[in-house]
Amino acid sequence: MATSEKQSSPKPPPSPSPLRNSKFFQSNMRILISGGAGFIGSHLVDKLMENEKNEVIVADNYFTGSKDNLKKWIGHPRFELIRHDVTEPLLIEVDQIYHLACPASPIFYKYNPVKTIKTNVIGTLNMLGLAKRVGARILLTSTSEVYGDPLIHPQPESYWGNVNPIGVRSCYDEGKRVAETLMFDYHRQHGIGQFYFPRFIEILSRLLFLTLFSVEIRIARIFNTYGPRMNIDDGRVVSNFIAQALRGEALTVQKPGTQTRSFCYVSDMVEGLMRLMEGDETGPINIGNPGEFTMVELAETVKELINPSIKIKMVENTPDDPRQRKPDITKAKEVLGWEPKVKLREGLPLMEEDFRQRLGVPKK
Ligand SMILES: O=C(O)[C@H]1O[C@H](OP(=O)(O)OP(=O)(O)OC[C@H]2O[C@@H](n3ccc(=O)[nH]c3=O)[C@H](O)[C@@H]2O)[C@H](O)[C@@H](O)[C@@H]1O
């Protein structure tokens, strides 16, 4: 009886790798960024590379990302770029994983929805498997789209959302919701978890080479982000309007134009993600700028700042477009001490400058 009780008792959590335990005696932190050749990923690479103790490894399949975004780091001894699709397993030794890989623009993620949901589900499983094997901390970039077409405004993290499970956006928003579920399931199933142990016990356990913890997770819910290096033909609203204004084309406001979004400048986003990774809070945490604009207001602002002579035209919208979106960032302020600094009117000219250079449109 005693033997069978012993056999059926739950297994202890798996041990973090020796690499993780010896972290306190090593100078370098090895950081993987999946999707690091993309818009937000490449800005994150720039920031992490500023710290000489970081080694950065980017894994990207270049579906929407580009080597161009990382050209200044190629050949750097602390930087490595791997062509890799996260739907396949990746076996490397790292301390931290920023898991960003997934097309984020609606036209790109709807282009191959099966691939999008595979990236979110199988890709996140593979990254979690890696995190579990090597004892790495993993941060998932989830999205404001998990709130769907929200019935609560602004959206706090406690809101469960209003999502169409069979719509054309589901590959992305339901995909990210499953990715969040996987993160928490790995956290609960493969480790005692920081819900129950404060940080100092975690540190003490590592110093004593005890392995109380396994999969440490962080979840950021990213709200609409803009800035230099967005794909010019990305299809999202800020990049569309800036490219249209510079090409002298009418700004295409999708109907009704009263729908709202809250736009966060990319440097603020990267700062929020890094604070979340380094802090003690698992999340989910909203990272976004609460400044809220209708699409007509955004078009008028772009027109005024970049090209007052262009027209604004109303065009058809796509199904399930959320009518309003604005982050409640109380939690980010409290637990990360983070809030965005760059206002829309300050960020748009910085993005305009980058788009001018890439489109070859000189300033008048
Ligand atoms: O930019 C982002 O960070 C987010 O972009 C998309 O979400 P969405 O808010 O639909 O992004 P957009 O395609 O930029 O659309 C925003 C609004 O602008 C409108 N829009 C878009 C493009 C355009 O040319 N004109 C226009 O009025 C859309 O109808 C929508 O109401 C993604 O699905 C999110 O995951 C991602 O986090």
Automatic annotation (TrEMBL):
This is UDP-glucuronic acid decarboxylase 1. Keywords: Decarboxylase, Glycoprotein, Golgi apparatus, Lyase, Membrane, NAD, Signal-anchor, Transmembrane, Transmembrane helix. Pfam families: Epimerase. It is an enzyme of class 4 (lyase). Its cofactor is NAD(+). Residues 1-20 are annotated as: Disordered. GO terms for biological process: D-xylose metabolic process; UDP-D-xylose biosynthetic process. It is found in: Golgi apparatus membrane; Golgi apparatus, Golgi stack membrane. Coiled coil: none annotated. SUPFAM superfamilies: NAD(P)-binding Rossmann-fold domains. Its EC number is 4.1.1.35. Pathway: Nucleotide-sugar biosynthesis; UDP-alpha-D-xylose biosynthesis; UDP-alpha-D-xylose from UDP-alpha-D-glucuronate: step 1/1.
